[in-house]
UniProtKB/TrEMBL annotation:
InterPro entries: Cyt_P450 (IPR001128), Cyt_P450_CS (IPR017972), Cyt_P450_E_grp-I (IPR002401), Cyt_P450_sf (IPR036396), Cytochrome_P450_monoxygenase (IPR050121)
Record's keyword terms, sorted: Heme, Iron, Metal-binding, Monooxygenase, Oxidoreductase
Protein family according to the UniProt entry: Belongs to the cytochrome P450 family.
Organism: Saccharopolyspora rosea
Protein name: Cytochrome P450
Length: 449
């Protein structure tokens, strides 16, 4: 095996790299890609990290040699709000979890849930009616989180967690910062040190656990139903044949709740923002919606005819991938792109850096849904990976795409959203790609005159 080192900032930049990772991880990752290309080597404090952004090299990690990659140290932060669930475990434990959940994401099953999604979107449209009449500005991010919380919990858990949004939204806002390990002092201190951060962490964890315990208790009382919670209560441990304990079930529910609604809420916020910035795209989308739907509520059967809608969603996920980076640790030494990657070190895969790579995408900073029209769409794998890839690709991607298309269609049919004058939307890399100071928008009825 080669002992060649991948290019990266030299020793003099080490401290700089760590402090930049703490303050602006998105900026650091974009810079590494621009300066060093498809694979870059960087020390982040004590951790040796290789950032991999070229399609073939990403394929190596996710698809060709996945046995050499496990979740590792950066995913440990996710345990804080997800426990040991499908996202953070490996091997047999992961497989058992994925097997229980997978059937709930089959195409036919999800399509039959489309009316639940459109009902939730209708609630959002009604919520915006007052502000639209008064021409008010609304920060859409929390409202879109509220929507996706409703969709996720009604489709998978058989309950409506929007009723508890006042408790849950602050938890989520805290969690997306706490779960990403950036080496901040507050994260490194032992649990027993009574800092304010630790008190807030304990409080938010307790709220999330309590809500999920209530979901489990409701399901037990309701008996067997056709949802994920009931399937988890029925499931048996593959080795012992015993039912899962409540802690294991709770971890799975927290994982789906966090991984499922927050990502989709962000994707919706970014898509509505992109439409507000590109009037030509919005006009073409509205024309397609008028032609195919003539004002009625979309169904899952309509979606194949709404080709431009899908292009807009795909381009938004390229430009603003909600999971903008995800990590792996190497089990043994590996060779990636002709460079040595030592055992026990971290590999970061960044959909954001990959989607903005000027060697792979023409004018990557331009929002252009035409890239995804059937005639010009590239079939090259791993240049576009908003949902990851290989065996660990996103289990919920079909639900996310369904929700995105139905929501964007219904919002664009009814309202015109414009960014509040003077507000600049700046992406920031937390666990998800979030607009730093929200997305305040003026909501107005669509003008059909
Ligand atoms: C736009 C919305 C979404 C985006 C961008 C997204 C993105 C991703 C990505 C990139 C991964 C792979 C992470 C890795 O390989 O380390 C992933 C995994 C996962 N996602 Fe999503 N996701 C979305 C929606 C959802 C939804 C709706 C659910 C569930 C309802 C969900 C549940 C999960 C779970 C459980 C995993 C772990 C899968 C495994 O390790 O086997 N996601 N997601």
């Amino acid at each position: 095996m080669t002992d060649r080192r991948a290019p990266g900032p030299d020793g003099g930049h080490l401290i700089g790299a760590l402090s930049r990772f703490k303050s602006n991880s998105l900026g650091l990752i974009s810079d590494l890609q621009r300066r060093f290309g498809g694979i870059a080597r960087v020390k982040l404090g004590p951790y040796l990290v290789h950032q991999v952004t070229e399609p073939d090299l990403i394929k190596h990690v996710l698809q060709d040699n996945p046995g050499n990659y496990r979740r590792g140290r950066f995913y440990r932060g996710f345990n804080l709000f997800m426990g040991h669930g499908m996202l953070t475990t490996d091997g047999a434990e992961w497989q058992a979890r994925r097997q229980v959940a997978q059937p709930f994401f089959q195409r036919a099953r999800l399509e039959s849930a489309a009316p639940v999604i459109t009902e939730c979107v209708q609630d959002l449209l009604d919520r915006w009616e007052g502000p639209a009449e008064r021409g008010e500005v609304v920060d859409v991010v929390d409202d879109l989180m509220w929507l996706s919380m409703g969709v996720l919990s009604r489709v998978l858990f058989g309950v409506d967690l929007r009723e508890r949004a006042d408790e849950l939204l602050p938890v989520v806002r805290f969690a997306i910062k706490a779960m990403i390990i950036t080496g901040k002092v507050e994260q490194m201190l032992p649990r027993w040190v009574p800092t304010r951060y630790r008190r807030d962490l304990n409080r938010h964890q307790a709220v999330l656990n309590r809500v999920m315990d209530d979901v489990i208790a409701r399901q037990r009382a309701a008996g067997d139903e056709d949802n994920l919670v009931a399937a988890l209560l029925r499931a048996e441990h593959p080795e012992t044949g015993r039912p899962w304990d409540d802690r294991a079930i709770r971890a799975e529910l927290k994982t789906h709740f966090m991984a499922g609604h927050e990502t989709t809420g962000c994707a919706l916020a970014w898509t509505l923002y992109a439409l507000a910035q590109h009037v030509d795209v919005r006009r073409r989308l509205t024309a397609e919606l008028d032609e195919v739907l003539a004002g009625r509520t979309p169904t899952a059967e309509d979606l194949p005819k709404l080709t431009y809608l899908r292009q807009v969603v795909d381009e938004s996920l390229r430009m603003y991938p909600p999971i903008w980076v995800f990590p792996r640790d190497t089990v043994d030494d590996d060779e990636i792109g002709g460079y040595h990657v030592p055992a026990g070190t971290t590999v970061l895969i960044s959909p954001h850096a990959a989607h903005h790579n000027a060697e792979v995408w023409e004018s990557p900073e331009a929002f252009d849904p035409e890239r995804f029209c059937p005639a010009s769409r590239s079939t090259e794998r791993y240049r576009y990976l908003p949902f990851g890839g290989g065996a660990r690709h996103c289990v919920g991607h079909r639900l996310a795409l369904l929700e995105l298309q139905l929501t964007v269609a219904m919002v664009a049919q009814r309202y015109r959203l414009d960014l509040a004058p003077g507000h600049q939307v700046v992406p920031t890399g937390l666990v998800s790609l979030r607009p730093k100071k929200g997305v305040p928008m003026r909501i107005a009825p669509v003008d059909r005159g």
